[in-house]
Specification:
heterodimer, A: ABC transporter transmembrane region fold, about 60% helix, about 10% strand, disordered C terminus, B: alpha/beta, ABC transporter transmembrane region fold, Rossmann fold, 2 domains, six-stranded mixed beta sheet, elongated, disordered N terminus
Chain lengths: ~575, ~625
């Protein structure tokens, strides 16, 4: 119920569309039922009059029949058009709504979700919500008003007849849907979840194909996919059995209503309270009126799928970002001194602090390096500086403004990150570069690429900057992709550089050239560098040596060389481990 | 993504009409997979139709009786009771028919999903690099589901459309030729109009499907790159792109639907018109009015009983034709989806398919179990796409048990050599020999069983840490897996995970750092008792202390095995028995570290930078020996 209310809230902005859809659907239904009922009456009356040789006005009913035929045809066309236009508009809006809630969660809160699963949410789950509008909301409104109308109309002739019709309509329109909803709950949920799993498995199996092949796991993966496919079909099978039941049930109720109308009407004919043409009309009306409730059992059977989809969307929407945006007035740092004081941070469910009692100052234009073993908290520090997480205690200030009072976008405007793990989008090299600077001129793009030691390579490609990089940059070698990502970060032209082993994995000459270029870029900018390359470390103003989230040693390269941990981390004088 | 102006996929130059024709053939070819369910579903629909005619006949009788014979309940009971039986039977048939139709499609769906995916596997990673996984995920989920409309709805509906109206016509004709004439004349108009409109729908429907696939692919790319978007403050800009793409999808869908709905409306109009003409002709005759017909066509007399019976049948006559309009739309969607699926299946397999239990992949020669694995590249040429050679005559020999390092600027072809050895591609010219047998003639599965591979960016699959370690050896015990993790220096951090080895990890790994993912991948390689280890920049992103630990593990792994390393680290390079310097797709130099330094060539220049960065080179090498 709670989800239904929330869904309704989401659809509220479209209530005018919904109102229009309802009205057209209602009129169409009435026209259709009228057509059948009047036709039955008309033919019978004509026959009776013909046999008796009595004159009758056949123009009025003939006009009515024509009118309802036109209304039915036109109405159905309009109804479909309006309801689908409305639905697609809503879905379009919902996708944006979902994205706007998804975006703040990256990356901290999205780690536990598979991208294929998120894809299912933004694609399939949102699509599934249209079921709510097209198959639930409007049909229920139409069914309620139409059922009332049919009941009152029949009651004018005979109450018992009307009550029997009402009973059967309720059976088909309330009891059957309730049962369908109940029975469809489990398979409905399975349907959504299995489909999402299937998507994930496909993405794993395509993006990870090389590894599956080499490790001989491709067949196993194919079998897993097939098993999920079978599971999905199994859930669908159960749903189809239910659908058949509901379909047969509604048909049976409609037929019974016709039967009962005749059975109950026969004595009325004898008494003379009902004329034969009227009975023919009421009988056909009873049969036709079930069109009003026919879509409901199926709709309610699928309601669980819709609600599961809605729940999966709400799950994301309700997740609080790891670093919620500040609510106060927007603040802008006036300078770029970075100050970190007594920082403590622990990942949720982690057993120990990722960073503890961590302090440093980075005045604008200075260079600070961070060295430490894997897992010592270097990357965590960057995540905190980028405001992907908020510290548990302590404070980070940029230009005197505490980070938790700064808008994420305002903060990140001043930071450029170069790391090993930036994503290249499945588009051209140029578009990937433009991401950082949409307005940049061609010359600016090329300059950045020259600095990143990648221009010559790009220029030599047949399609140059228009070369398509492929999904996650797969059409480039690792080093090429990295340098394009570095060029992109350069284009951002931010006053603070966060460098996370930017040259790792590049060959010697390239690394050297790139480091020289970065050296140039660092002039006039603050730099935080994660590395263990002595050549880079020698040029830093201060070096922090991290161990298990704490600053174990600090000082300049020369000072630290006499320490204990630092030389070992750089690979000097290390005891050979075995 | 900066702009939505992205090609949907690498350009495919297949004529449109041709591919549509293929899609239809494709659907036809898979009809046998529906088994007897399809025929059964049609039979049930027909049975239900026959019962409907009987039901109309009885009803007409009843109405006639109470209108003209003043019949009461007692006289009508013999008619009314069988009616109840008919109702029950029809409900039963409707229930069973629905399921049978579903099962007809179920077989096709499951078969195709499996086949298409396995075909993708067999085509291999090279083809994948030109594809979008998001779009493939759409094809294999929604695309396959779209086939249901064709097999479960359209095909039965098509059969019914042929048979049921014909049956009604046969029943009506002897009773009133005029009504049957009206039916016979109006009915064909419906399919004619439908086809006229349908051809137009077909074209835009295909576009709509592409738009859908594009949406899926784009969203996946965005989701996977969300952090990057955020870093560049581009995530809000992206919201606009998403809005645009959704709007584009809406417009295209509505384009299809408008035409589809129009065609339904036209069908509706014709069927309503047909029913109205029949009703008017019957009504006029019952009222003894003259019909506006020429003398020659003197209309026959008609009784109320027959008139009412025909009137009840008239809507049923047009119903299957009208329904066909609805199902026709489903058919178009299925064709659009089938076109994509057929395109994938029509993608020729490489000369040596990547995998395939029963196919050519496993038909090659198997190496002897104790094969030493000497590798020889003989003038190997290879290009990923024409005009961009990745290897241009690579020649080298790797002796059994040797440790060979590949160095060279990025893009020189290092990864390509690894890819060819892994069987992801065939040399365009030249050959690769393994123990004097051409790699091209070897059983790929058997060959890969001898390999362990640590790629540049290892991927973790859905499942637990343990599942991921056991990827290449699912039958390995927990103890063996832990031992492998220990050797890969992964055991310590795995023990600290919330559920240890049973912690579930996602594609990028829950909260795992790059180094941790790499060590899990290394454990994966350890667990596989391979003869040849291929490492691709395996120690990148580890700090020297950890790197030393991992290197120790790798050294252990390399003992008695051959190892090919795509290397950047001096430490790994120095220890190699042979260093191959790759420049522009050729081996420019080869030899040991000292030999190459003495040559003062490419290697010496490359090493210069790295050497300079190490103040104490002698110590540095000591760290890992």
């Amino acid at each position: 119920m709670k989800e239904l209310l929330r869904l309704w809230q989401l659809f509220k902005p479209y209530r005018h569309w919904i109102g229009a859809g309802y009205l057209i659907a209602f009129i169409t239904l009435l026209a259709n039922v009228t057509l059948l009922a009047i036709s039955g009456w008309f033919i019978t009356a004509m026959a009776v009059a013909g046999v008796g040789g009595v004159a009758m006005n056949y123009f009025t009913p003939a006009t009515l029949i024509r009118a309802s035929a036109v209304a039915r045809t036109g109405g159905r066309y309009l109804e479909r058009l309006v309801s689908h236009e409305a639905t697609l508009r809503q879905l379009s809006g919902l996708r944006l709504w979902f994205y706007s809630h998804l975006e703040p969660l990256a990356p901290a809160r999205l780690q536990e979700f598979h991208s294929g699963d998120l894809l299912s949410r933004i694609r399939a789950d949102i699509d599934a919500l249209d079921n709510f509008y097209v198959r639930v909301l409007i049909p229920v409104l139409v069914a309620i008003s139409a059922t009332l109308g049919f009941f009152v109309f029949t009651a004018v002739y005979d109450l018992r007849l009307a009550l029997s019709l009402l009973l059967l309509l309720l059976l088909a329109g309330v009891a059957l849907p309730t049962a369908s909803r109940h029975l469809g709950r489990t398979p409905g949920r399975q349907l959504v979840e299995t489909e999402a799993q299937l998507r994930q498995t496909v993405i794993d199996g395509t993006q990870g194909l090389s590894e599956l092949l080499v490790f001989g796991a491709a067949d196993t993966h194919a079998r897993r996919l097939d098993a999920l496919s079978a599971e999905l079909i199994d859930a669908q099978d159960r749903m189809s059995r239910l659908a058949g039941l509901a379909q047969g049930g509604v048909g049976l109720c409609a037929n019974l209503a016709l039967w009962l109308a005749i059975w109950l009407g026969l004595p009325l004919l004898q008494q003379g309270t009902l004329a034969p043409p009227q009975l023919a009309m009421l009988a056909l009306l009873a049969l036709a009126s079930f069109e009003a409730v026919a879509p409901l059992p199926l709709a309610f059977q699928q309601l669980e799928s819709t609600l599961t989809a809605a729940r999966r969307l709400f799950e994301i929407v309700d997740t609080t970002p790891a670093a919620p945006e500040p609510t106060g007035p927007a603040r802008h740092p006036q300078h770029f001194d970075l100050s970190v004081r007594e920082l403590h941070f622990r990942y949720p469910q982690a057993e120990r602090d990722a960073l503890s009692d961590f302090s440093f100052e980075l005045p604008a234009g200075k260079r600070l390096a961070i060295v430490g073993p894997t897992g010592s908290g270097k990357t965590t520090l960057f995540s905190l500086l980028l405001r992907f997480w908020l510290p548990d205690s302590g404070r980070i200030e940029l230009g005197g403004v505490p980070l938790n009072e700064l808008q994420g976008e305002e903060l990140r405007r001043h930071l450029a990150l170069m790391s090993q793990h930036t994503h290249l989008f499945n588009t051209s090299i140029r578009d990937n570069l433009r991401l950082a600077a949409p307005e940049a001129s061609e010359a600016t793009l090329q300059d950045a690429c020259r600095t990143a030691q990648i221009h010559d390579f790009i220029a030599a490609l047949p399609e140059g900057y228009d070369t398509w990089v492929g999904e996650t940059g797969v059409r480039l070698s690792g080093g090429q992709a990295r340098r394009i990502a570095i060029a992109r970060a350069l284009l951002k032209d931010a006053p603070i550089l966060l460098l996370d082993e930017p040259t790792e994995g590049l060959d010697g000459p390239t690394e050297q050239a790139l480091m020289q270029a970065i050296d140039q870029i660092m002039i006039g900018r603050s730099t935080l560098l994660i590395t263990h390359r002595p050549i880079a470390l020698a040029r830093m103003d201060e070096i922090l040596v991290l161990d298990q989230g704490r600053i174990a040693e600090r000082g300049s390269h020369q000072e630290l060389l006499n320490g204990s941990l630092y030389p070992r981390l750089l690979g000097f004088n290390a005891d050979t481990p075995e | 993504m900066p702009t939505p102006a992205v090609p949907d996929s690498p350009p495919t130059k297949r004529p449109k009409a041709d591919s549509k024709h293929q899609a239809k053939q494709f659907l036809d070819r898979h009809k046998p997979l529906t088994g007897s369910y399809l025929r059964l579903a049609i039979a049930m629909h027909l049975g239900s139709g026959a019962l409907l005619i009987a039901q109309a006949w009885i009803l007409a009788h009843v109405v006639n009786a109470f209108v003209f014979e003043g019949a009461d309940r007692a006289t009508l009971t013999p008619w009314m009771l069988p009616l109840l039986g008919l109702f029950a039977l029809r409900a039963l048939l409707s229930w069973a028919g629905e399921q049978t139709a579903f099962r007809a499609a179920a077989g096709v769906k499951r078969h195709l999903r499996d086949r298409v995916y396995r075909h993708i596997q067999a085509i291999g990673p090279q083809w994948m690099s030109g594809q979008r996984s998001g779009a493939l995920a759409e094809d294999l989920t929604k695309g396959i589901e779209a086939l249901e409309a064709y097999f479960a709805r359209y095909l039965p509906a098509m059969a019914i459309t042929m048979l049921l109206p014909l049956a009604i016509l046969v029943v009506v004709a002897p009773l009133d030729w005029l009504s049957s004439l009206v039916m016979a004349l109006t009915a064909p108009l419906i399919p004619i109009f439908m086809i006229l409109i349908g051809t137009r729908v077909e074209a835009i429907n295909q576009q709509q499907w592409k738009s859908l696939a594009r949406m899926g692919a784009h969203f996946l790319d965005v989701i996977q790159g969300l952090t990057t978007l955020k870093l560049f403050n581009a995530s809000r800009r992206e919201a606009r792109v998403i809005a645009e793409i959704s709007e584009d999808y809406r417009r295209r869908t509505m384009e299809v639907l408008r035409v589809a709905f129009l065609s339904s409306a036209v069908l509706e109009f014709f069927s309503t018109l047909g029913i109205a003409i029949i009703a008017v002709f019957i009504g006029f005759r019952l009222y003894q009015l003259d019909l506006p017909l020429p003398e020659a066509m003197a209309p026959p007399e008609i009784s109320f009983l027959n008139g009412f019976f025909i009137l009840l049948l008239a809507p049923e006559f047009f119903l299957p034709l009208r329904n066909l309009g609805t199902h026709y739309h489903g058919r178009l969607e299925a064709i659009a989806a089938a076109e994509r699926l057929a395109e994938i299946l029509a993608t020729p397999l490489p000369e040596r398919p990547m995998i395939g239990a029963a196919s050519a992949a496993s038909s090659g020669q198997c190496l002897a179990s104790d094969s030493p694995l000497a590798i020889r590249f003989e003038d190997v040429h290879f290009a990923y796409e024409a005009g961009r050679p990745a290897l241009a005559g690579a020649n080298f020999v790797m002796n059994p048990g040797e440790r060979v390092a590949l160095v060279g600027p990025s893009g020189a072809g290092k990864t390509t050599i690894a890819n060819l050895l892994l069987g992801f591609g065939q040399p365009d010219a030249g050959r690769i020999l393994i123990d004097d047998l051409a790699l091209a003639d070897l059983d790929l599965n058997d060959w890969r069983r001898r390999l362990a591979w640590l790629p540049q960016r290892p991927r973790l699959f859905q499942g637990s840490v343990l599942d991921n370690i056991r990827l290449g050896a699912p039958e390995a015990s927990l103890e063996d897996s832990i031992a492998a993790a220990r050797r890969a220096q992964a055991a310590e951090f795995i023990d600290q995970l919330p559920e240890g080895y049973h912690t579930r990890v996602g594609e990028q790994g829950v909260g795992l750092s790059g180094g941790q993912i790499q060590r899990i991948a290394l454990a994966r390689a350890f667990l596989r008792d391979a003869r040849l280890v291929i490492l691709d920049e395996a120690t990148a992103s580890l700090d020297p202390a950890n790197e030393a630990l991992v290197q120790a593990g790798i050294d252990a792994l390399a003992r008695d095995r051959g190892m090919l390393i795509i290397a950047h680290r001096l430490a790994t390079v120095r220890q190699a028995d042979c260093i191959l310097v790759l420049v522009g797709g050729r081996i420019a130099e080869q030899g040991t570290h000292d030999e190459l330094l003495a040559q003062c060539g490419h290697y010496a220049r490359m090493a210069q930078g790295t050497l300079d960065s190490l103040p104490h080179p002698s110590n540095a090498s000591g760290a890992t020996s």
